[in-house]
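User: Hey, quick favor. My workstation is busy. Could you predict this chain's structure for me?
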Amino acid sequence: EIYNVSSGARFATYVIEEPSQSGAITLNGAAARLVQKGDHVIIAAYAQMDEAGAKRFQPRVVLVDEQNRPKS
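Assistant: No problem, here it is.
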């Protein structure tokens, strides 16, 4: 799920992995019309797992800087 904080747009899309440390976040196809360069977005990812896996799971929140690099 993508939540565009700048415009209020909300939509679901797919992921294509970019090279490690590239800082690239790219939208393709119809989704590309819903976000402009420089918009602030929230990217939410979900997973399915059994109960045992859910008990062990530790969710992560990653905040990034202006170059989309994780903040310390």
